[in-house]
């Protein structure tokens, strides 16, 4: 059975990725965080954390116009747009998120920033990094937008997995190259 790194109320530890653990999260008995960036510096999902419904819907409409479908989740007073993707290098997913926010007119940094995105990094972080963990979706207090209404209870939900690899001409990441002084 595959092991995943989840964070519980007692700190970060490896636990078996089991139906029992996931059921406990979905039923609100346990809150799990996860690492968006997997070993190998890849991701299988991206998401946008929004402070209001207007911003979340703006991003959702933009993504749908590119045939990139997502799920809009409301947790407490925050909105999270989840997009489940074919596994891709984390730097490409990060660029996709940044380009999406820029094209929607959102600030990426500073005091005017109203939307956050994950992955924030193209690399796996240490477990102490605040960028390393994100709340697993569909947990306690989660409501999903279905047919124009946020609902807690539903029988099934269809989740599309989309391929964003062809959306942009992704530049290769910059590598740190040492400068060597040479005498002529």
Structure description:
Residues 1-14 and 175-184 have low confidence and may be disordered. The chain is globular and about 40 Å long. By secondary structure, it is an alpha+beta fold. A hairpin with a 2-residue loop joins strand 1 (3-8) and strand 2 (11-16). The protein has helices spanning 19-26, 53-65, 90-103; strands spanning 3-8, 11-16, 33-34, 42-50, 71-75, 78-89, 115-118, 134-135, 142-146, 149-151, 161-162. The strands form 2 sheets. Strands 4, 5, 6, 7, 9, 10 and 11 form a 7-stranded mixed sheet that branches. It has a domain at 35-162: Alpha-Beta Plaits (2-Layer Sandwich). It contains 3 helices and 11 strands.
Set out the fold topology.
Elements: E1 3-8, E2 11-16, H1 19-26, E3 33-34, E4 42-50, H2 53-65, E5 71-75, E6 78-89, H3 90-103, E7 115-118, E8 134-135, E9 142-146, E10 149-151, E11 161-162
Parallel strand pairs: 6-11
Antiparallel strand pairs: 1-2, 1-3, 3-8, 4-6, 4-7, 5-6, 5-9, 9-10
Protein name: TOTE conflict system primase domain-containing protein
Domain TOTE conflict system primase: 5-133
Pfam families: AEP-TOTE
